[in-house]
Structure formats: C-alpha cells, structure tokens
C-alpha cells in the first residue's frame, strides 16, 4: 500500500535554513546539509529544499550545496526556488535532485512546465503554488516568494499545471504559513478534488495532528518546517499520530 | 532510448552484457531492459522479454512515494531482504508478471513488476539509491552477485 509522506522543508537563504511567519520575519535554523541528513536519519520520507532568495544567489553555489546533500542522504530530495529555464532544471537534476519544483518561473511562462516534463518526465517536475485567500472567496496564486499577486486563481492554476505535465503540486497556504494553527484544509480538499496528481500540503503545521488532518483531507504528503526545526515535535511523533488515525505510514 | 542511440550506447550496453558485465536498471532504467515501452511507443534494449505500459487504472499518477515490494521469487538472492518498503516515482511499468519478475508492487488494485532479474541483468522500478535501508540492502545484494 502506498504510504503517506511526512516531509520536512528547508527554506534556504544565504546558505542557511531560515523560517518566517506568513513568509516574512525570517530567523536562522541551521545548516541545510546537516539538517537534511538529520531528518533523513529520523525517518523523513523526503526532503524539500527551497532556495528562498531566488535569483539573488549564486546558482553554482546552490548546485554544489544540493550536490553535497544529495550525495549523503538516501531519501528523495526535491529542490526549488528561482528556476525559470529548462537548463536550470537539468543542472539541479544532475546535481542529484530527484525532483525540481517550479513556481514563479512557471507562472510567468507556463510552457516551462511542459518543456521540463517532456524532457525529464512528469515524475521529477513539481509545481509549487503559494496560495492566499481572497476576500470574496477562493485563493489567488502569488509569485516572487509571496510578494506579488499573479493573475491566476490558485486552483485553476494547479489544474493547468497538472495538465501541462507537473507530476506533483506543492500547495502552500500563505495565510496559514508559520502560524502553526493547522493547514488550510479547505484549500487541500479543493485542490485534491480538482487534480489527479499527488498533492503535498504545506503551511500551518503546529502539532502532529495537523499533519494527520491534511493527509485525511486528501493530501499524499504533508510538509512542515517550524515544528521540526524547533524540535517541538519529531518526525516519528507525527507518524505515530498518523498511524493511530489509520493512515498508512512508512 | 533516443539519447542512448545517439550516444552509441545501445550496442555498447548489449556488448558489455554479452561480455559478462552485470547490469542494474533503475526506474526508467528497468523499463529500458524490456522489448518495448508504451511511453512514446519506443523499442527498448530487449534484454528481457516483456513490455512497459502506462499505469491506467491508478487513481493518482505519477505513482509517487513509498510502497511495498513483495517477493515473488523469495529464494532469489536479490529478493533475500524482501518484503520491504521502497521509494517510487513513475507512471509507466511492466504490468503483471513476466518471466524475470522477482517482486511485485500493488497500487489501487494494479499490480506491476517492481524488481526483475534474469542472468546478469536486473532492474528495480523503485529507487534503491533513495530507499534508505531497503535500498542499501538491494544494492549490496546486487554487488555481491556481480562480484
């Protein structure tokens, strides 16, 4: 039986893991390669590594850091942040990333998804969506690390991304991110009901039951950062809570 | 396959295996070992009998994540550490069993060959390099076989 996944997320800026609240007020949470190794040993099912100073950082340095992490961990590694051309996807896959996550670059030019999926396969192309609730209902997709609203409804964009060949959607609720009060479950349900690719829920985990809630809402995987970085909860604690609720875990 | 052909690697791989080399195909590498793939309707290396098909009937594709690898030939050296849970990321597979099937995996009622082996040729539909201890175990078994 296919297991549900628990994914620690490393938001990396200037070579360090950082974490903010609602995408701002970043604080330092350690060295990314060490963190990736530690989580892999603790039973994480996958690592997501997001370069959040997209474009502002030396692309070669990022590739070398990804290479060091990919060499040493023995679970899947997804890398994203600032990728706007197929050549960058290729470089990161060659550096050892198993999947590459596209966000702003794909919203600016949706054919980036189809070009990358055609060349490397849907199984390694993730579309990350930063979604914020609209006053009149629904969610809007934001770009540039949540700094700018796009023209897209987040759910409609997710459907198009999957159609273009994204093999997974990583959906972050900007409203819930860093607040640790639970995922936006309505967003998770709506996206999961719209697409037939796996969905990773992100944003809002504050305790183990929150991740179980997101998985019960239909997500294949639940991603969290603060609760693991702060040591408030371990990956095994989360998995045990999920198992108690009848979810299939590794 | 087009990339293999362009690089002259099709003949090189066949010649190496004929010469006594051991070969382990991973993920799409397993798929290339067979006669034909429905992905792009492509002829493959033809080292093992069978064909690769799309995983129609599965609810969510790609098949992405950790799933059971259940032994079909439990006394084969490559299957010695099974059952195990390993990491998959694919939408095509060798559905059902073929003569080289050593282990299989089930997803929404669809079964496919997740570990194959015949003579010096072996393949894993999952990623042993990304399957933690279960992956290490398979790679060690393969190296022991090839030694």
What share of the residues of chain B does DSSP label as strand, in percent? Answer: 25-35%
- For the largest beta sheet of chain B, what order do the strands appear in spatially? 1-10-9-8-5-6
Strand content of chain A: 25-35%
Indicate the percent of residues in helices of chain B.
10-25%
Class per helix and strand makeup of chain B: alpha+beta
What is the terminal separation of chain B in angstroms? 28 Å
Q: What do you see in this structure?
A:
- The complex is a heterodimer of chains A (250) and B (147).
- Chain A has ten helices and twelve strands.
- Chain A has helices at residues 32-41, 59-72, 86-94, 104-108, 111-120, 154-164, 185-194, 208-216, 226-229, 235-244; strands at 5-13, 16-21, 24-28, 47-51, 77-80, 99-102, 125-133, 139-143, 148-153, 168-173, 199-202, 221-224.
- The radius of gyration of chain A is 16 Å and the shape is globular.
- Chain A has 250 residues and is of the alpha/beta class.
- In chain B, strand 8 and strand 9 (110-118) form a beta hairpin.
- Chain B is globular.
- The model of chain B has no long low-confidence stretch (mean pLDDT 97).
- The A-B interface holds A 1-5, 40, 45, 74-77, 98-99, 121-124, 167-168, 196-198, 220-221, 250 and B 28, 59-68, 85, 87, 89-91, 106-107, 127, 129-133, 135-136.
């Amino acid at each position: 039986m296919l297991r549900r996944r628990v994914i620690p997320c490393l938001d990396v800026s200037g070579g360090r893991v950082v974490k903010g609240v609602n995408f701002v007020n970043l604080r330092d949470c350690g060295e990314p390669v060490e963190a990736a190794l530690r989580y892999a040993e603790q039973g994480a099912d996958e690592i997501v590594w997001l370069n959040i100073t997209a474009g502002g950082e030396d692309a070669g340095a990022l590739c070398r850091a990804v290479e060091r992490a990919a060499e040493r961990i023995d679970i899947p590694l997804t890398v994203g942040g600032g990728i706007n051309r197929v050549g960058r996807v290729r470089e990161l896959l060659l550096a050892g990333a198993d999947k590459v996550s596209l966000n702003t670059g794909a919203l600016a030019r949706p054919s980036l998804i189809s070009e990358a999926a055609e060349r490397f396969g849907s199984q390694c192309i993730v579309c990350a969506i930063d979604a914020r609730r609209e006053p009149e209902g629904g969610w809007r997709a934001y770009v540039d690390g949540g700094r700018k609203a796009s023209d897209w409804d987040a759910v409609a964009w997710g459907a198009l991304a999957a159609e273009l060949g994204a093999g997974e959607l990583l959906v972050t609720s900007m409203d819930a991110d860093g607040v640790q009060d639970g995922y936006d479950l309505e967003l998770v349900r709506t996206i999961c009901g719209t697409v037939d690719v796996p969905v990773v829920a992100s944003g809002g985990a504050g305790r183990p039951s929150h991740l179980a809630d997101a998985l019960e809402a239909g997500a294949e995987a639940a991603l969290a950062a603060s609760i693991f970085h702060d040591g408030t909860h371990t990956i095994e604690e989360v998995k045990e809570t999920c198992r108690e609720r009848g979810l299939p875990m590794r | 396959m087009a990339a293999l052909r362009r690089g002259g690697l099709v003949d090189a791989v066949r010649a190496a295996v004929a010469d006594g080399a051991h070969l382990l195909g991973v993920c799409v590498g397993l798929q290339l070992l067979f006669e034909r793939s429905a992905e792009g309707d492509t002829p493959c290396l033809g080292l093992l009998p069978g064909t690769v098909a799309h995983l129609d009937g599965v609810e969510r594709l790609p098949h992405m994540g950790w799933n059971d690898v259940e032994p079909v030939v439990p006394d084969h050296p490559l299957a010695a550490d099974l059952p195990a849970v390993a990491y998959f990321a694919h939408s095509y597979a060798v559905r059902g069993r073929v003569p080289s099937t050593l282990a299989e995996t089930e997803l929404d009622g669809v079964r496919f060959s997740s570990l194959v082996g015949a003579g010096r040729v072996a393949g894993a539909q999952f990623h042993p390099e990304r399957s933690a201890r279960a992956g290490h175990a398979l790679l060690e078994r393969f190296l022991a076989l090839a030694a």
